[in-house]
Every structure is written in structure tokens, then in C-alpha cells.
TrEMBL record:
PANTHER family, A to Z: NICOTINAMIDE-NUCLEOTIDE AMIDOHYDROLASE PNCC, NMN AMIDOHYDROLASE-LIKE PROTEIN YFAY
Listed NCBIfam families: cinA_nterm, molyb_syn, PncC_domain, PRK00549.1
Name the record gives this protein: Putative competence-damage inducible protein
Protein family (similarity comment): Belongs to the CinA family.
Organism this protein belongs to: Anaerofilum hominis
InterPro entries registered for this protein in UniProt: CinA, CinA-like_C, CinA_C, CinA_KH, Competence-induced_CinA, MoaB/Mog-like_dom_sf, MoaB/Mog_dom
Family matches, as Pfam families: CinA (PF02464), CinA_KH (PF18146), MoCF_biosynth (PF00994)
MoaB/Mog domain sequence ranges: 4-170
Lineage, highest ranks first: Bacteria, Bacillati, Bacillota, Clostridia, Eubacteriales
Length: 426
């Protein structure tokens, strides 16, 4: 099944609104085994939209639209698509009553909202449980068009409750998928490691890179769910055999969503001392429910004087090695672990940029340390493409992965291990 996504709205072309709908739908269709061949963004111009729909209808089996279902004069997606699909719109009294009820407590329904109650005569309406504009479905000459609102939460709810099931019926059989979340290798390196596993037709596997990590979506189709799940699990097992502990989760996205329940389950506690990350690590941890059972406190220690006074970093360490160094990171980790009486202490110090680097320590240089007991593991990072946000995100990623590995008794690649007197061992 060939699919196209068409996002309607001049505000999208102007860059006033980020098109998160297209990203969401692309991922959802991939999970259903439906290939997206094109994505288009077009303004609120009925003539140009009609030409785009005519062309798309001739080359694709499925068109998914978002936007242009509102009550204003420039919201013409429904009318335009109906014309191209040789359908007509008729007033749905039930939908009109819903819209009137929605506006009862808001001073009455504006007259132009009545157009939102117009639905296809030959096609179908799709209920909107979050807003006033129902979605609609048209069919003509072997092509199906599904129109959904542009408001992201309305579109997502409609897709999950009413559209996904329709698409599964259209695709035939059963489709199941899972997402393996991986931290360590970048997308190109990972592709070299598992390239042969990405070549199958059923089940299929695809890489997705975002937020300083990579995910593999494994999707399988079968006559029923049991058959599809068996095919998916066979390929998933091959990825697990190949990648081992580089896979940190199946379906739970975000290392924090693994580390928090892991430490809660082990009744272990964590404290953080951050410099260049500015509290991002603590923020990620505390965004997870139940974090209070494993997180004691976090300190943002930008100034060297605070590193000395609060964390006990030695003046001699700062003088000899500098604030951005493996020894300083180690003493930060030990210091916060001691102050919190925690099982793990994390220390992060580095140069997030855009300025401030040197030849020996350019922007993107970060030291991440995790202490437990009387030992501390330290990594030096050299974050490429060193935008400030990327340096901070990558640093917090490594910190969480190091904690995960220590809690599970796994090796930490590329880390040096020190004792309590890190400066002497260094």
C-alpha cells in the first residue's frame, strides 16, 4: 500500500508551527507496515490543493491529510478533496447538535462553525472526541483519503481511536511491532553492525536516530497476531544476540525510564552534581514517576568555589587539573554521594559552548563520573556537532547509561576506574 501525507496550512509553510503531525503519522504507518512514499506541505489555497490531491490520488493508494477542517473561510480541505473524489458534502444533524452543545457554555455557536458538520454523502465521517471538527473518509478509483484535524492532540486521539483500526483492515492480516532502544553506537555505526538484519521483507527492521540515541523498529505481518508476533520475535532475538547490552530497553523510550525503576527495584539511591548540564540529568530523572524512591538530591555546581565548598573538590585538584577534568568529575561524584549518603553519585563537568574551549579541551569536551562504594568510573566525551543542547543531552545520556551498567554489573566501555584518591591514581 503506497501512502502519502499531506499537511495543509499556510502557517506550516511560514514556519510558525512545527509539523509534528507528519512525524507522528510516519512512525505510526511504518508500524503498520504501510510505506509512506511522499510527504507534502501546502498552504490554504484551494486551486493548488486540488492539483496536489489530483496528482496524489493517481499515484497512491492512501492519502492522509491533517489540517484545514476548521470553521474559517480558508479551511477548505474537506471541500476540495470531496470535489476531487467525486463526492459531495451534506449536513449531518447529529454532528451539528454536538457542535451546538460544545458552544452552549461559550455564548452560543458562531454561524461559520456549521460547516464543520458537513460530511461526505458517499464516504464516512470519523468521530472527533476532542474537538468540534469530525474527520472524514473518501474513496474513489481505488484510492482512500482520510482527513483529520491539524490540532495535534485531536489528530492523535482520532488516529488512535478510529483511524488505526481502519488502516489495519485495509492492510489485511495482523501487524505487530516493537521498538528496541539502543545507546552507544551512532546510526551509521549501528547500520554497519546490523545491516544484514535490515534487509528482510517480512519481518522488517528500520533504524531511527533521535535524542542522541538510536532505535530499531521491528515489524511483522501475519495471518493473525500470533503468527505476526512469532516472526517479529525471531528477528528481535537476532538483534539482541548481535547487540547485547547496547539495547537498554524494548519499547520504553528514554534511559531515565529504565534507570529509575531499576534503582527503585534494587532499593538503591542516586544523587547528582552537574556543571555544564545545568540540572538536565536531575530533570530527566525526576520526570519519571517514582523517582522520589531513588533520587536524593541534585546540585548544579557551576562555580569552582561551589565545587570546593559543597562537594569537597580539592583546591589542588582544580589548580593542577582544572575544573574540566576527570579528577574533578570524580571528586564531584564522590562528594555528592557522600553528602547524600547515596549508593551512586554522578559528577558531570565540561564545556558546552559555544565558546570557552581550548586546543586540549575543545567545546564538546565533557567528563562524566559515577561513583559507588569506594570506586569511581570516569568517561571523557568529545561530543561532535557541538551545539550546546546536544552536548548537554549526550552528557546526561552517558551518565544514565553508566548508572544502568553499574547497577546491572555490566562493563562500562571506554571508562577509567579510580579509587577514593583519584588525583593520586591519575
Amino acid at each position: 500500500m503506497k501512502a502519502e501525507l499531506i499537511s495543509v496550512g499556510t502557517e506550516l509553510l511560514l514556519g510558525d508551527i512545527l509539523n509534528t503531525n507528519a512525524q507522528y503519522l510516519s512512525k505510526e504507518l511504518a508500524a503498520l507496515g504501510i510505506t509512506v512514499h511522499r510527504e507534502s506541505v501546502i498552504g490554504d489555497n484551494p486551486d493548488r490543493l486540488a492539483q496536489l490531491v489530483e496528482d496524489a490520488k493517481g499515484r497512491s493508494d492512501l492519502l492522509l491529510f491533517t489540517g484545514g477542517l476548521g470553521p474559517t473561510g480558508d479551511d477548505l480541505t474537506k471541500e476540495t478533496v470531496a470535489r476531487v473524489f467525486h463526492d459531495e458534502l451534506v449536513l449531518d444533524e447529529g454532528e451539528l447538535d454536538k457542535i451546538r452543545m460544545y458552544f452552549e457554555c461559550r455564548g452560543g455557536m458562531p454561524h461559520n462553525n456549521e460547516k464543520q458538520a458537513m460530511v461526505p454523502k458517499r464516504g464516512e465521517k470519523i468521530e472527533n472526541t476532542c474537538g468540534t471538527a469530525p474527520g472524514v473518509l473518501f474513496r474513489d478509483e481505488g484510492c482512500t483519503a482520510i482527513l483529520m484535524p491539524g490540532v495535534p492532540h485531536e489528530m492523535r486521539t482520532m488516529f488512535e481511536r478510529s483511524v488505526r483500526g481502519r488502516l489495519m483492515e485495509m492492510a489485511g492480516g495482523a501487524i505487530v511491532s516493537t521498538m528496541l532502544h539502543i545507546f552507544g553506537p551512532g546510526e551509521s555505526s549501528l547500520e554497519e553492525m546490523v545491516g544484514d538484519l535490515l534487509e528482510g521483507a517480512n519481518p522488517t527492521a528500520a533504524l531511527y536516530a533521535k535524542n542522541c540515541e538510536v532505535a530499531v523498529r521491528v515489524t511483522a505481518r501475519g495471518a493473525d497476531e500470533k503468527e505476526a508476533a512469532a516472526l517479529r520475535d525471531q528477528l528481535t532475538a537476532r538483534f539482541r544476540e548481535r547487540l547485547g547490552d547496547l539495547i537498554y530497553s524494548e519499547d520504553a523510550e528514554g534511559l531515565e525510564n529504565v534507570v529509575v525503576p531499576l534503582l527503585v527495584g534494587k532499593r538503591q539511591r542516586l544523587a547528582t552534581a552537574e556543571s555544564c548540564t545545568g540540572g538536565l540529568l536531575a530533570q530527566r530523572i525526576t520526570s519519571v514517576g517514582g523517582a522520589s524512591e531513588m533520587f536524593d538530591f541534585g546540585a548544579v555546581t557551576y562555580a569552582s568555589s561551589i565545587k570546593r565548598r559543597i562537594l569537597g573538590v580539592k583546591p589542588s585538584t582544580l589548580k593542577k587539573y582544572g575544573a574540566v577534568s576527570s579528577v574533578t568529575a570524580a571528586e564531584m561524584a564522590f562528594g555528592i554521594q557522600r553528602e547524600a549518603k547515596a549508593d551512586f553519585g554522578v559528577g558531570i563537568t565540561g564545556i558546552a559552548g559555544p565558546g570557552g574551549g581550548t586546543a586540549d579541551k575543545p567545546v564538546g569536551t565533557v567528563y562524566v563520573a559515577v561513583s559507588t562504594g569506594h570506586r569511581v568510573w570516569v568517561k571523557r566525551l568529545s561530543v561532535e556537532h557541538s551545539e550546546r543542547s546536544r552536548v548537554r543531552r549526550m552528557s546526561s545520556q552517558h551518565a544514565l547509561d553508566m548508572v544502568r551498567r553499574l547497577a546491572l554489573g555490566l562493563e562500562i566501555p571506554d571508562a577509567r576506574c579510580f579509587g577514593r584518591h583519584a588525583a593520586e591514581e591519575f
